[in-house]
Amino acid sequence: MAGFNKVVNSYGEAMAGLEDNMTVIAGGFGLCGIPEGLIKEIKNKGTRGLTVVSNNCGVDGFGLGILLEDKQIHKMVASYVGENALFEQQLLSGELDVELTPQGTLAEKMRAGGAGIPAFYTATGVGTVVAEGKDIKQFAGRDYVLEPSIVGDFAIVKAWKADRYGNCIYRHTAMNFNPMAATAGKITVVEAEEIVEPGELEPSQIHTPGIYVQRVIQGQFEKRIEKRTVRGA
């Protein structure tokens, strides 16, 4: 079964084939469940002109935010962008193209893309700028807007555990967008906290089957806290 082993030994191998002007779908929500090492590898490669699809763009100096420092992102498709001053600066200056997308719609765009569904109708965004220029149809007397799904050249996700065949388990809120993102990449790369042998993961607990995954790498995570809130004694 050696041919099914998807583990690679370097971040260079993990992101091999990433080129300028590609689309990258990234799992994570804020700084929770983000593939930190894979994002750093994109920065190190210097790949430019990227369209990045993710819930948000990290923060200044960490997560996807580091890709803004050298202006590697051409377009950001996201649902929330409020934690990054450099993002705001590049948006207002016209250096960064931004497509704001309702959060549930963004998740469904990834899921539908991974399922081979080219577009879907949703009531979210009807009557707002989100629906401008898009097809509107009525179902059961209610308006729905047609939203195209998303498929990326690469999808990068973070797992709690993955086996060598690419089967993945996510942990608690770090699951967030990762399961949907994992299905929507032509090449999906998993950065895992722990890589186990096939058979060690309980089949009923697997969130992403290995059929969606092309590469797995053992990650080293800093796991920053985005906003630390403490209560006085």
Structure in a nutshell:
This protein is α/β, with parallel strands linked by helices and 233 residues long. It has one domain (2-117, 150-218): Glutaconate Coenzyme A-transferase. The chain has 5 helices and 11 strands, in the order αβαββαβαβββββαββ.
CATH superfamily: Glutaconate Coenzyme A-transferase
Give the integer mean of the pLDDT values. Answer: 95
Please compute the radius of gyration using only Cα atoms: 18 Å
Q: Helical segment tally?
A: 5
CATH class (first level) name: Alpha Beta
Please give the largest β-sheet. 8 strands, mixed
Q: Let me know the number of strands.
A: 11
Class from secondary-structure proportions: alpha/beta
Beta-strand percentage range: 25-35%
Low-confidence stretches: none
- Total domain units: 1
What spatial form do the alpha-carbon principal axes imply?
globular
Identify the CATH architecture: 3-Layer(aba) Sandwich
Query: Looking at CATH, which topology would you report?
Result: Glutaconate Coenzyme A-transferase
Give the distance, in angstroms, between the N- and C-terminal Cα atoms. Answer: 56 Å
> What letter string, H or E per element, gives the SSE order?
HEHEEHEHEEEEEHEE
Percent helix, as a range, is 10-25%
